[in-house]
Amino acid sequence: MQGPSDSSYAYKWEKVGFRAAWVSITQIPLIFMLSTKFNLFSLLTGISYERLNWIHRWTARTVLLTVIVHWSFFFQEWVLADFVQLQLKMMPMVKYGFGAFAILGWNVVSGFGYFRAKAYELFVIQHICAAAVLLWLLYIHVPAYAQSYVYLSIAFVALDWGVRIAWSLIRNLHLLASSKSRVLGYQALLKPLAGDVVRLTIKNVDFTWKPGQHVYLSIPRLRPFEIHPFTIASISEQRRDAVSSTLTLIIKAHKGFSRSLHKAAIGRVTREGTYRAFLNGPWGTPPDLSHYETVVLLATSSGASFTVPLLESMIQEPGCVRRITFHWIIRSESHLSWFGDKLNTLVEKAQSNRVNVYVVVHVTRDDQQRPLQQGGDTVEKKQEQREPIVSVISRPDVSPKEANVSASGADRSALLAVEHDHAPGHQSSMNVVYDKRPDVASLIRGPVEDALGETAVVVCGGPTLTAQSRTFVASLSDERAVHKGTGAQGIYLFTETYGW
């Protein structure tokens, strides 16, 4: 075993550093490929680009560690040989290497969720600029025989941008439309809703999409050079003779682009209240729920933009689905204006189909509501005190009393009346519960335990809700010993998080 006194001891440090260099540079194309929307990995696996983003981040973090090994082992060799200053003076490539390391470290740190959420638009701009500088520094730092990995990274980005630009031109110039339109882009109508929400409607959309997909929206008149993703809150027209569909977006105003949309919707700057919009997409690979016997849809706030189209598509084409439980958690009763009429219509439509639809809207905070008593007051009594926004819909052979939800305070008992009514025939109902935020376990356990076949659980909300759902579904699967000889059917979980 060689020690520090051996003449070749320093060279051993260089061998490890050189190997770490190859490991690092060969992973750079993977980082850039996973950052693109149109990439080879998505084409081969069918996994949408946004679900690969966490792999992109963790690949970069891993490469940062291998880069640390690379330069630290080389540096240790120079220390042992006592020519650190000479090395930095004779080989300028070393300085470019340290610069690339600094840029990579900055991208990793600034890419943490906390910083992205603080100023996402600023993050995107600086992230792209830093990535370009990183490639330039790497090109100078690495030897000529390793520069092919830099070229490959550039090729992945160029392919992505080329395809996206071409796709945008095809969409907004209507090149593939059956009826050629001379209008550039689309006309978007903005309407303000309660809770700082905007309903953006685009009619005569000449392309189709799947429920749960999203598009990138740009309105240059409001925010030039900005394009943002939004989930499509409507379904595409499926009739063969249909030449266009109406695309609807429900947008919650926060900062930046969404806040500009809300101000424009209130101000009605243009006479007709319409704006020229440009679309790119659709993007995303939403789940196919048609082969599950029971489906549980759970959303909070504007997350219903994802679950409502899924509900509507299953009512139109149920497939194997026989029972759907839809939970929507909102803070105020006024938020019912976002999807209340649509949900009422869907429940009515479900009456004629062979699928039972149970819609429960949970209102967790309303200034007009008094605290719920624990004595068993029902939603029916609460609805009688004001003009009804949502009514209970049921078949004639099911009494309203049987269909109502108990708002007694215990989440599970409050939902039993809606979700576990086994009256003969197909029935559907929509109910509003005024209470505290329900427990995720109480919303999912009942339908899963009553299911005769496999169950799909689809959740759209913030990170807390999706994390709770993952934890509970995993524990419930273990508790029921799914597919382990107990007869318990499988549980499929799909989560969608609005955030970054």
TrEMBL record:
Pfam families named among the record's database cross-references: FAD_binding_8, Ferric_reduct, NAD_binding_6
GO BP terms in the entry: copper ion import; intracellular iron ion homeostasis; iron ion transport
GO cellular component, one term: plasma membrane
UniProt membrane topology term: Multi-pass membrane protein
Top-rank EC class of the record's enzyme: oxidoreductase
Protein name, as recorded: ferric-chelate reductase (NADPH)
Keyword entries, A-Z: Cell membrane, Electron transport, Glycoprotein, Ion transport, Membrane, Oxidoreductase, Transmembrane, Transmembrane helix, Transport
First-listed, main subcellular location of the protein, grouped into a coarse class: membrane
All copies of domain FAD-binding FR-type, residue ranges: 176-289
Compartments in which it is found: Cell membrane
Organism expressing this protein natively: Hortaea werneckii (Black yeast)
GO MF annotation terms: ferric-chelate reductase (NADPH) activity
PANTHER family in the record: FERRIC REDUCTASE TRANSMEMBRANE COMPONENT 3-RELATED, FERRIC/CUPRIC REDUCTASE TRANSMEMBRANE COMPONENT
Superkingdom as given in the UniProt entry: Eukaryota
Membrane-spanning intervals of the chain: 20-46, 58-76, 96-115, 122-142
E.C. numbers: 1.16.1.9
Family per similarity comment: Belongs to the ferric reductase (FRE) family.
InterPro entries: FAD-bd_8, FAD-bd_FR_type, Fe3_Rdtase_TM_dom, Fe_red_NAD-bd_6, Ferric/Cupric_Reductase, FNR_nucleotide-bd, Riboflavin_synthase-like_b-brl
Catalytic activity from the UniProt record: 2 a Fe(II)-siderophore + NADP(+) + H(+) = 2 a Fe(III)-siderophore + NADPH
